[in-house]
Design a protein that fits this description.
There is one protein chain. With 283 residues, this protein is α+β, with helices and mostly antiparallel strands. It has helices at 16-24, 31-45, 87-95, 112-125, 168-173, 182-191, 230-244, 258-266; strands at residues 8-10, 52-57, 65-71, 74-80, 105-110, 127-129, 137-142, 158-161, 195-200, 203-210, 216-221, 249-254, 270-282. The chain folds into two domains: 8-136 and 278-282, Aminopeptidase, CATH 3.40.630.30; 144-247, 3-Layer(aba) Sandwich (Aminopeptidase), CATH 3.40.630. Strand 10 (203-210) and strand 11 (216-221) form a beta hairpin. It starts with 7 loop residues before the first strand and ends with a strand. GO terms for molecular function: N-acyltransferase activity.
């Protein structure tokens, strides 16, 4: 929590609604910022909050937000802005003590205008932004106005349900961005009813999560069951669930991952803007 003199002012959860609204007005670019606030509130309401701290430049939500997402020992810093004018956001970050630049940081889901802010800030702070570490990712979305998938039938022996806790080790071992403590995250998501899986005779064959920030994450089919349409079936079931709840289902697809992109396109997902992930390290 920042002190009164820090330009990044702490925003308590009971005031997040005003911040959500400014990002909703910046739709679709603001979709991730809007969604992360809703997702984190939902976790708190389920008794699963773990400390997602939100700050606004000079206490004004129109300037955007900086949020600290500390997951076990993984230090993630969200930087988002609902307008093209990022001057106040940039100045506040440069003058603030909220971000610990002596740590290894991951800055996720950066729209281009905020990515440029990060490049300038890290240069002035004398820290290293690995701008090309990861390729851009395109937002893929199945909007709540889309039609539901009809006549879905589970094959014999296939069950749709949550990932079982005894499968966390296997799930974690297949995650490309695993880190020390990522098992804790998967356990949290299972408790929050944000895991979805297909089991064949009690064997986990395909799964996907809705992450702690509200987006599709870790869609995976085990090696012995690929090419059988399980990922397609799983996504259809999840899309229908979100349509019933009148919610958009979206995630990010790495450019160059043609198999994943074809899967999303075949289901009617639309591709919108791109974002970046940027690791930041002390020199």
């Amino acid at each position: 929590m920042s002190d009164a003199s820090d330009p990044l002012q702490f925003l308590p959860m009971d005031k997040w609604e005003s911040l959500e609204l400014v990002f909703k007005d910046d739709w679709p670019r603001g979709i991730s910022a809007y969604t992360v606030l809703q997702a984190q509130r939902a976790l708190v309401e389920k008794g699963l909050g773990y400390g997602f701290d939100v700050y606004c430049p000079y206490g004004d939500v129109s300037n955007g937000m900086v949020a600290l997402n500390k997951k076990f020992n993984f230090y993630e810093v969200w930087i988002q802005c609902p307008t093209d004018d990022t001057k106040q956001l940039e100045n506040a970050i440069l003058s603030s003590n909220v971000i610990d630049w002596s740590k290894e940081i991951m800055v996720p889901i950066l729209p281009q205008h905020v990515f440029e802010v990060l490049l300038r800030v890290t240069q002035k702070k004398g820290v290293l932004c690995e701008r090309d570490r990861y390729p851009p990712l395109d937002l893929v979305i199945y909007e709540k106005t889309k039609p539901p998938f009809k006549n879905i039938c589970l094959p014999k022996g296939i069950r749709f349900g949550p990932v079982l806790k005894e499968d966390i080790d296997m799930v974690d071992s297949t995650w490309i961005v695993r880190y020390e403590g990522s098992k804790w995250l998967f356990n949290l998501l299972i408790k929050a009813d944000q895991s979805f899986a297909l089991y064949k005779d009690e064997e986990l064959v395909s799964y996907v999560f809705i992450s702690e920030v509200g987006i599709l994450a870790h869609l995976y089919t085990t090696d012995n069951h690929r090419g059988k349409g399980y990922a397609t079936l799983l996504l259809k079931l999840l899309c229908n669930k979100y349509l019933e709840e009148k919610r958009d289902l979206f995630g990010y697809c790495e450019r160059g991952n043609e198999n994943a992109l074809r899967l999303y396109e075949s289901l009617g997902f639309d591709t919108l803007h791109y974002i970046r992930y940027a690791p930041v390290n002390p020199k």
